[in-house]
Amino acid sequence: MSALVRSPAQSLEWIEQHLIPVPKAELEQMQQWISQLDTSRFEAREQANKQLRHHLEHAEPLLQQALSGKPSAELKIRLEKLLNEWQQRHLLKDRLQELLESLHAPEARHLSQKLVTCRLNQQ
Description:
The chain is mainly α. It has 7 helices and 2 strands; from the N terminus they run H-H-E-H-H-H-H-H-E. Helix 3 (about 25-35) crosses helix 4, helix 3 (about 25-35) crosses helix 5 (about 55-70) and helix 5 (about 55-70) runs antiparallel to helix 6. It is elongated and about 50 Å long.
C-alpha cells in the first residue's frame, strides 16, 4: 500500500485498470447455486462455486444464511471458503478506499465511487 501512496498517478491508473463491475444475479439464481454446492455432481459444484465467487458481493448474505443452517460437511467447507474470500475482498476494498481518500484528487474521488459497485481483479 505504501508504494501506491508514493506514486498517486500510477496508483490511480492501476486501480482503474483492475476494477471489474460486479453483476447482480437474481436471488433465486444465487440460491440455486448455493444448493448446487452440495450436489453429488462435481462439475455442477464447481460451476456453482465459480458463479458464486463472481457474485460474492451480492451472495454474501445468502451464504451466511446457508451456513447458519445445518449444512453438510462438504457444503460447510465450501461456504466457509467463499465467505473467507468475501472477507479478504472487503478488507482490500476498505484499504483501497482509505488510499483513495488520502489522495485528495478528483480522479481518486471518481474511483472511490466506482469501487462501491466493482471488485478488484487481483490477477
